[in-house]
Amino acid sequence: MIIENAKYNKNIADENCSVQATIDGRTMSVPLDTNNTDYAEILKQVNDGYMLEDNDVRQYLTIAEAD
């Protein structure tokens, strides 16, 4: 699975509510749900050093932040 251009989507309360990413060439919004296979893969890749973009600031997402 190739995940590119991953960044958080924010809700009206300015909280992270999903991840928008290009996955295998398709742009999609992935819910922050560990039961979602795409999100589980994003977490795996983050754990392996992949970074998400957050409002033009690149930062590591930890498993704890996702819970």
Model description:
With 67 residues, this protein is of the alpha+beta class. The protein has one domain. Helix content is 22%, strand content 42%. The chain has a three-stranded antiparallel beta sheet, with helices on one face. Mean pLDDT is 77; it is low at 55-60 and 62-67.
- Per DSSP, the total helix count is 2
Strand content: 35-45%
Main sheet: strand order: 1-2-3
Shape: globular
Major sheet characteristics: 3 strands, antiparallel
Structural class designation: alpha+beta
Secondary structure: helix percent:
10-25%
What are the low-pLDDT stretches, counting only 5+ consecutive residues below 50?
A: 55-60, 62-67
Q: Give the rounded overall mean pLDDT.
A: 77
Distance separating the two termini: 23 Å
Number of strands: 5
Order of helical and strand elements: EEEHEEH
Fold topology:
Layout: E1 3-10, E2 16-23, E3 26-31, H1 37-47, E4 52-54, E5 57-59, H2 63-66
Antiparallel strand pairs: 1-2, 2-3, 4-5
List keywords for this structure.
3-stranded antiparallel sheet, disordered C terminus, 67 residues, globular, alpha+beta, 22% helix
Outline:
The protein has helices at 37-47, 63-66, and strands at residues 3-10, 16-23, 26-31, 52-54, 57-59. It is of the alpha+beta class and 67 residues long.
